[in-house]
Amino acid sequence: MAITEIASGLKFPEGPVVMEDGSVIVVEIQSGNITRVKPNGKKQVIASPGGGPNGAAIGPDGALYVCNNGGFEWHKNGKLTIPGHKPANYSGGRIERIDLSTGKVDVLYTHSEGQPLRGPNDLVFDKQGGFWFTDHAKSTHDHREWGSLHYATIDGNHISTQIHQIMAPNGVGLSPDEKTVYYAETLSGRLYAAPIKKPGQLAKGQGVLPGGAYVGQTPGYAFYDSLAVQANGDVCVATIFQGGITTISPNGKAKLTSLMQFGDLLVTNIAFGGKNMKTAYITLSGSGKLISMPWANAGLRLNFNA
After folding, report:
1. CATH number belonging to domain 4-294
2. pTM for the whole thing?
3. What pLDDT sits at residue 205?
């Protein structure tokens, strides 16, 4: 398996966005920067929103939309950097629009239905140009807030909370037919699927508890981070502690691709690009690396990524 290390020395990279020119835009959560990594590994800071820029995606207007979690405490465990609780300088959760040509940062949303956003984490655009996003929420040494799933439009005029009580939701993605929104829970290490009634609105919830239906999980102990969907409908979830990517089919069958040879338990994000969408770009956040590798199945092309 040919794995390429594209860049190192990044400050907890996440949210890779594969661009048409072969560069990859990543957020650096620890430094509060948005950085373009060129194919030769050269890094260029293109915006500095501060706080904790997290998931990112290109919108229908060509701008970069970012979930900003407001920041973390930071800790070292050997050579690995690890995020912690809400910091003393927490700047509040928000959704931001970033002009890639100028680096200008505009805040679109800080609240949903009158409640503050606490730790927006990841987002995905539908064909209509609106976006689903998770709010991972925040924790302190003795308290954990509920997370949530939202839908919003890029004009800053519409946002709704579609699921109010989720335990630390993280990655989010859409099925190829956009009839299902998937989200991953970090602390339970489980993938869920929620049926969509119409753009921006979920169908009636299934089961006793609010939220989507359970899909699957990695055998053994694992946290889940971000995700990407394959063209065949399988979901690839970055798997913390087991240090790899778990591919889960809609019927719940799970298979882990291990990257433990890098010694980084914090494999956090995967995005697809390259020829035929069969190159996976993966962030190893604890060690600050961006890598790429061939992927057996094509990734689903995102709606507004050229």
Report:
1. 2.120.10.30
2. 0.97
3. 62
